[in-house]
Amino acid sequence: MGRLLNIIYLCFLVLSSPWLLWRYLAAGKNKRGWSQKIFGLVAPRTSANPCLWLHAVSVGEVNLLAPIIDRFKNRHPGHEFVISTTTETGFDLASKKFSEHYVFFCPLDFTWAIKRVLKRLRPQMLVLAELELWPNLIQTTRNAGIPVAVINGRLSANSYRGYHRFRGWIGGTFEKLSVIAAQNETYAFRFRKLGSSPSNVVVTGSVKFDGIKTNRDNAHTQELARIAEIGPREQVFVAGSTQLEEDLIAARVYQQLCQTNPNLRLILVPRHPERCGSLSHQLNQLGVPSVLRSSLNSACNPSSDTASNVRHWSHDRNPQPSIRPVLIVDVIGELGAWWGCADVAYVGGSLGRRGGQNMIEPAAYGLPVSFGPNTENFRDVVEELLEHEAAEVIRDEATLRAFVERALTRPDWAFEMGVRAKNVVLSHLGASQKTVDVLSELLEASNSASNGSSALPTRAA
User: Fold this and answer.
1) Judgement on whether residues 140 and 239 belong to the same structural domain of the protein
2) What is d(CA 168, CA 459) in angstroms, rounded to the nearest whole number?
3) What percent of the chain has pLDDT over 90?
């Protein structure tokens, strides 16, 4: 099947080449890593130490690797890690977050590229974050005698239906997964139904709850608050992981509420930083001034003139002097710390069809959290937050304005909602350690198999 898939992938690559070229030239995307993606030309690993290959598709999956790596290093101090991503934003964040490890672009599902990566990196195990189900990747890795694990595994209802429709074609791939550490029993059931061995599926909880900051006084948040010159009397509304329409809705809400809340500040953290420049232009057309986070980098020096950009922007360019400029964060990897600056939160990707973004981080800080109705990616988290009255679903501009206004004018209500949200997060801590226990067990089984029989034993039921 590997050769057939290679041919299919090549045909698809040729047919999609005009679109890829357009993204390369016009949109500035997919410019890097093609030698790694197509040919597997990664840098050879020279160390003889044992190694784990961790794969994270994009930013969200990269973030959940941190507690896994920390705990695994404590348990297996001699191991090294190599980290692959699919997207450029994921690559940039991984390079920044895990600078001591080798970061590369994951090869496309061509057998020759995967074989070259395995030969050059010599991993003991391939660990896939959440689910990146590429048949050749999994088959080729297993053929090399290397176990493949899925951590923080999840299968949404839509994904499950799609995979189930092609179960005859894809079911063998699920069977080849050595272990699946699923977030909950619902996901575990779906993995089993799609062909994964029941003895290889275990529920560990969601790693996204671990490694989350809960203390607003952490150094990164304090640094950002100083850079943005957030005063003690100011109230901060943060809208994070937003799509375009959500940015504009939040800006209009901010514009309206500033009439009665002159100390209000808005911080927008779009899901795609590359559109922040055009977003700034659109906000100015609405009569809402803005400033880009990247222009404030030198504000780490309190004496810097740049540090006063936010303060003076409204006086120089704002047609409505009572509005402070919107801070648009065009820097990758800062959203988690910006939530710590907030008094009220909106989590984006939830008014459109994206399926929602991570609302665990603002909940962990004890914020009154809101999001739209389309949150399938975090269905279980959303259900629990709503069950405990620890978040609120907004459906349009009017309901977002009502939520933010209530949080600003009823601090006791906002505080109580935030406490409930934080308690939900605290009740889930520990998934990372359970996941590392599962990986360690698989590693020991793999080592025993390589020293004895060639077959990798399954986990005990």
Assistant:
1) no
2) 25
3) 71
